[in-house]
Amino acid sequence: EAGVVQSPRYKIIEKKQPVAFWCNPISGHNTLYWYLQNLGQGPELLIRYENEEAVDDSQLPKDRFSAERLKGVDSTLKIQPAELGDSAVYLCASSLLEGTQYFGPGTRLTVL
Amino acid sequence: AQSVSQHNHHVILSEAASLELGCNYSYGGTVNLFWYVQYPGQHLQLLLKYFSGDPLVKGIKGFEAEFIKSKFSFNLRKPSVQWSDTAEYFCAVNSRGAAGNKLTFGGGTRVLVKP
Description:
The structure holds two protein chains of two kinds.
Chain A: E1 5-7, E2 10-13, E3 19-24, E4 31-37, E5 44-50, E6 53-56, E7 65-68, E8 75-79, E9 88-95, E10 102-103, E11 107-111
Parallel strand pairs in A: 2-11
Antiparallel strand pairs in A: 1-3, 3-8, 4-5, 4-9, 5-6, 7-8, 9-10, 9-11
Chain B: E1 3-6, E2 10-14, E3 19-21, E4 23-26, E5 31-38, E6 45-50, E7 56-58, E8 64-68, E9 73-78, E10 87-95, E11 103-105, E12 109-114
Parallel strand pairs in B: 2-12
Antiparallel strand pairs in B: 1-4, 3-9, 5-6, 5-10, 7-8, 8-9, 10-11, 10-12
């Protein structure tokens, strides 16, 4: 069974530029999560989807971050404009209902 | 709000030594508990989990963890480590029923096993 797929794996951009990350969850998993992981810290939830509905986006900085999961499968996380402090690893995870979460490899973002 | 605390940020030990990583959480309700591992250059992988039943949980690669409800703890153990156990270990808690399936992670413990 294929795991959670994320792309790109690495991204380097200059500040004020936009950037987008893509995630394809495990087949059949209706719940999808985006996490932010800063260096030396554990992941922190940004947003959780159940199917195409964002059911918890309380930790998403909505002034510059946006996310979508239009057909309830793939998801995109966008930052516009990026700031230096956004440099981190962005993780996607998926689960079946409220079961165990499985993580993708992450996208390492560097903002110069 | 729930929080998770991992006592050690870095642990260095030799092969065959025993490992114990501490994890404490703060939440008064019913919880699910997890240990995830991240090997160098790889993604987070589930090591073991506790939902209910026997508080001593056995996971992959010889790891086990014990849930002690009265101490709000879920410590990870391995009797004899190998060089390949070098990784970062994260404890995570999911408060059942509240706010959905929201995992709260500890800060992680980097473990270096010297050959």
